[in-house]
Every structure is written in C-alpha cells, then in structure tokens.
Amino acid sequence: MTKITIKLFRFNAQTDYLPHYDTIEMEIDERKDVVLDVLNRIKWEHDGSFTYRRSCRHGICGSCAIKVNGRTTLACKERMEDMIALFGRELTFEPVSKKRAIKDMVVDKGDFWAKYAQVKPWLEAPIDEHPKMEHIIPPEEAEKLEESDYCIQCGCCYYACPVVEVNEEYLGPAAFEKAFRFVADVRDKAKRERLEIVDRLGQGVWDCVKCFECAEACPKHIDPIGKITKLHNEIFQEGVAKSNVATRHAVGFKHSIEKHGILDEGHLVAYSEGFGVFKHLPEAFEMWKRGKIVMPWQMPKSKKLDEIRKLVKIASSVKF
Amino acid sequence: MSQALKYALYTGCTARESTPELLKSTLAVAKKLGIELVLLDEASCCGASHLQDFDDFLSLVLNARNICYAEQLELPMVTICNTCQLNTAMTKERLDSDPALRARVNEALSEVGLTYKGSVSVRHFLYALIEDYGLDRLKEHVVRPLSQLNIAPFYGCHNIRPSQLHHKMNQTHESPYVPTSLDQLIEALEGKSVDYDHKNKCCGFHVDLQAPRTSNILTGNAIIDAFDNDADLMVTPCPLCHLNLDVKQKAALKTINREAKLPILHLPQLIGLALGCTPEELGLQHNVVEVPFI
What we know:
The complex is a heterodimer.
Chain A: E1 2-10, E2 20-28, H1 35-46, E3 65-68, E4 71-74, H2 80-87, E5 90-94, E6 101-103, E7 106-107, H3 110-118, H4 139-143, H5 162-166, H6 173-183, H7 191-199, H8 213-217, H9 224-237, H10 245-260, H11 265-273, H12 281-289, H13 305-315
Parallel strand pairs in A: 1-5
Antiparallel strand pairs in A: 1-2, 3-4, 3-5, 6-7
Chain B: E1 6-10, H1 20-33, E2 36-39, H2 51-54, H3 56-73, E3 77-79, H4 82-97, H5 99-110, E4 122-124, H6 125-133, H7 135-140, E5 150-153, H8 157-160, H9 163-169, H10 181-188, E6 192-193, H11 212-228, E7 233-236, H12 239-247, H13 249-255, E8 264-266, H14 267-275
Parallel strand pairs in B: 1-2, 1-3, 3-4, 5-6, 5-7, 7-8
C-alpha cells in the first residue's frame, strides 16, 4: 500500500464564487489502482457530494477525463503507479478546463461538441435505404483511416491544446482528427467540403502550433497532429489551398531550398506576407541593429547546391 | 578520461542567419570542452515542420540527404535547433522502420549518388553533452559559477515531444511532463533552476506569421510565468523559441498587457558564461534583450 496526498479541485458553479482545494490523504494499491479508483474512493469514503463523470470504466465512453498535475488523463485508463512515477505522491486533480467547470471535475463540454459538429462528423454517402448487406470497405481502405476511427471524444487532446486555450475559433485536434477520419474514407462524398472547413484561417489546421501536446495526451494513441499534417497535405493535393500567408509559408520553404539550399529567412517572410511584410519592419530594424539580418547579397548557400536542386526537381510530388 | 568526442554538426538555417550567436557560442563551448564539431555545410534546410505540410516526400528526401553527409563522415549527428532535431529524427525513424519508404527515398537519392543507410544517431547537442560528455565532467570546467542567478529553463516542444521519438533517439528518457535535463544542467553550472508551469509549454513560433496573436500570447505567458517566479534569465536549447522569446519579447508582453524584461540565453551561451568564454565569443551583442550580468 502507498500513502498519497491529493489536492482536489472543488467548485460548484451554482453556489461558489471561486473554487477551493481539499487535501485528502489515502492509502492506495498503486500497482492495481487506476485514477478512477481514487476518484470513486474520494466520493465513497470522503465526500459524497464530490462530482465527476464516469461510465464504462473501459476506455470507451470517454467520460472520465480529468487533469492530473496539469496533464489531461483518462481516469479509467491511467494507472496510479505511472502517475506517482511521473509526479510523486502529492497529486493535484483538476477538471480538464477550470474555466469551464460546472461542479468539481465536471465541465461544460459544449465548446468541444460545437466544434466537433462543424466538421460534419458523419459519413456523407448515397444510401441504399433497403440494403441487402452492410456498406463495408475493404481492409486496405480501412487501413487508410490510420486508427482515426478509434477516437472516443474524451477531449484529452482538445483540453491539452494551447491554441484552444487562447483562440476561441480554433476547432482543435479532436475535430481535425474526426475530419481526417472521413476525408480518408473511400465511401465519403464530402471530402472537399470538409477540407474547406479545416482550411479556414483562424479556425483551421493552419493555426496549429505543432507542439505535439495532443499526441502526448491521446489515451488511444491516435496521434491527432499526425492527422493534422495529413489534412495539410490533402488541402494541397485536392486543390483546396488558397494563396494566403499560411499556404505561402509552407510552399516558400521549397522555393528557398531550391535557391539557396538553406532557408532565406527574409525572403520567406516577404513571400508569405506579401504587402503585409511592412508590419514586420520595427522588428526587422531591431534585428538589423543586433546583426541578426543577413542581406540578400550576403545570403549563405549550401555546398553542393546542384545536388539539392536536382533532388527538389525529381522528388517534388505536389504542385501549388 | 575517455577519448575526445567528435560529431557532425547540423547547424540548421537560423544559426547561420538570425541567431548567429547560437553558432558562435556552440563552437566556443565545444572548443572549451575539447569536443570536435565538423560542420555539415552540404546540408539543406530541414523544412522546419512546414515543408512537410506541403510536400511530405520532398521533405523526407532532403532530410535523408542531410543525414547521408553525417553517415559519410561516420560521425554521430548533433543538432542545435529543436525543430531541426524533430524533422531529422522523424525522417530517420520513418526510414528505419519502413523499408518500402526507405527504398523510395533512396531511389531519389541515387540520382545524386547518395544512399541513406541509417547508420548514425541524431541527437540534440544538449543530450549529446549530457549522455556522452557527462554533467560531472562539465562541472569540472566551470570557472565562473552561475550561483547568483535564478535561471528559468525553457525546453521547447520539439526536444521533448513526441516523447516516443525522443525516447528512441536518446538514452535520456525525458518526460514531456516533467523534463529535467536543462534543470540538471543549470544546477551543474551552479545556477538555481526556476520551477514554473510553462517550462515545457509551447512558444507558438510556428504560427508567428498566420496567427501572431496566438504566438504572442503563448510567448508572453511563458516569459511572465518565469518572471513572476523570480527568474533573472531564461535559457532555451531552441533558436526558434529564442526568436520568439527574445526578438518578439516586447510585442508578446504588450499583447498580454504586462511589463517585464527577461534576458533569454541560448543553451551554449549559458554554458559558455560558466566556462569563462568572453561575451564576444558567445555573441551576446546579438541578443535583443540585453544580458547585463557579465
């Protein structure tokens, strides 16, 4: 048995102005217990009014996500042994989003579901209303989903995403993951429509900061950021990409590499921004004063540049 | 002591352009420690995790080519940028685990007489230093202990996430939730490492152009968290984080409506200070937020 101390977030939106934390000590069997066992025992042994969501206890219903020491965690899946190894014997349990807390661990997940709905999370296909058999796809086609159909909408990735925290429009990794699930489905007829939704600046995949928090947080190991990259690729391959600062930023790397081997930082900013480049002038001046700007005529080049140019020519697989 | 260490250094683009101080200080520290670095001047840009969004195969081929030049030298490859590390390591991992993909990439590379073999390791200089050189040995070289300084480590995403990739490339199995390597390094230089929530968070650099507000808030939050926890300075192993934290510090703090001034050092600049390198050797004159404690 192991003695642990839990700092527990307590809040009731109907009666409390601010949240507070209870401190609870208990002995657990760390080899056996998962986080959900501890939540249950808090309710059964310490305070019956403690509130949290749970249902299946098998990592399927996606109800029981909380934050343990700031890390989004599916409570029924995560072993206490691993939590103690990571954070020690003093653990803080909080809801996945403190600002969306309704009561204790229960949050208003309305933002999550509203964004999820925006990517049309269903199959768009002409349906035979009296089918003789299921509408199936062959195994090699199913593999192209790359397990994106395993998502249980627990919100672990979404509430771990730093962009969701600061940009209310941003659809977030779970919605993108779901968009990919249907974009990759051979039966689906709404590919372009979905790609147009996730291509929009502000809400779409271009606002992903590439921090990989979603990949770490996903209890089903679906790798949402991997799916976000695939959506970027599809946006170009399907001709959905419009010329804007984000798409030119991605394409600009190719132009630079072809010209210099290494990146021409100044040119990349100018090419991506177009006329918008002028807003960077104060910053550029600061950099110039500190010897941080390489002038075009001083631009260094990779050795064996011919080799790089040849590879760019033969290995390019996408047009824009 | 063991024989001298030698690596193939993939500098990345930033160290040759907007953060010249990173390359200078890396070379100065390596010289002090007797580590030999052979510059991979043939290497191209890694695509900075953006080229792959446009053309994944091209990105793979170019990164594989960069590794080929370290393989030709038969030297382990080190990087000094978290994002270079991510793109190079991810390429290595994908090619090493997928023979069909490797064959496709090698078919392209054969056009310029190269073959990717998968024979060298790819690590960030931070981990090469910790794993091969050792912090105990580093301690012996400290001539100017950083004992007066509260130093906030800023890890940068791509060195610690995705953790699976990190664990495959390094013996140091850093946790993305509780990373310790930079803290240990700071302590080895006799500084006091500052504990703060944002040490393993994102600076937002990759959306600087398309979503400056997001980027500024993330950078501002990290700076102010360190500042509020009494940091005298911040250190980062990533030049892209450095550009946001240093060059864009003023704009970032303005966005979150806070005032502060926090010098940001590159990892080798911090080590160099403790090893007695001169400010010129460390390129401190290039830092936008002045570094006053020399």
